[in-house]
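quick one before i forget lol
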Amino acid sequence: MLMKKSFHHLLNSRVFACMACVLVLYGCPERPSEKGEVLAEVYGEKLYLDEAKASIPASMFDKDSAAVITKFVNDWILNQVLYRHASKIIDQKALDKEIENYRLSLTIARFEALWLEENLNTSITQDEVQRYYLGNTGQFILEEDALRCLFIKVLDTADIVKRIDPIWKKDARDSLAMFCTQNAGHCLVNEDQWFTESEYKLYVPPAVFDQRRSGRTSFSESHNGFKYYVKILEKAQKDNPSPVQLVQDKIKQRILHNRSRNLLRDMKEELFKRNIQNKEIKVYTNS
């Protein structure tokens, strides 16, 4: 409560008086120094034009550059005034300790990131993915239905439908893909690809989506000038283990996370042992 009163007292009685002095100073530019033109001065701290320009993104100067600089200067002035008065209230020793701890943590974090960048093997085989999946299947439960299917969307014209129907019936995947490429169609004919129900809805309109619930595994449907061809190869129901193909990206992330954690652990242990052997570490006890 005392700190709160002191803070408000300083603001009410002195900050705005100081701001008035600063603005007078700001209105009387100094001669340029080696650092360039002085834009403002607060308690002996000077802001130079070159420093202001370096701190402002270049894209901001696409607007009114004078207005941009003026706002930057005003913000700088206010921050300097607030900092001066806050420094009288805040426990500087406690703040310095916080800064020291933050610097330590940030330095270590950046070192670890750099070390991993140079030492982490990011190559993951499909066998590794499969082993992780089989060992953690319970962690990959479907939250919605999923299906493995073939999907084609083409313009619903007599000529295109006449040519694609026999290719679709023959299940000639390469020919279907080539046909879609040549006729501006959309084609998904990778039989190993799984889709969640939400993803499937992105490709087909409701009228075609509803056909999936009819129990038919292969069908075509015309809708709004397009013809859709769908062949459902396999289904997986909600609340059951997800097909590995749907979660392999997540699995790879987990594998890399585990590798990173183990590498860092080993590096720290080795670094600790080396410094113990070199007698760089000394532990003093009171016993």
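fyi Strands lie at 38-42, 45-48, 146-155, 186-188, 194-196, 218-223, 226-236.
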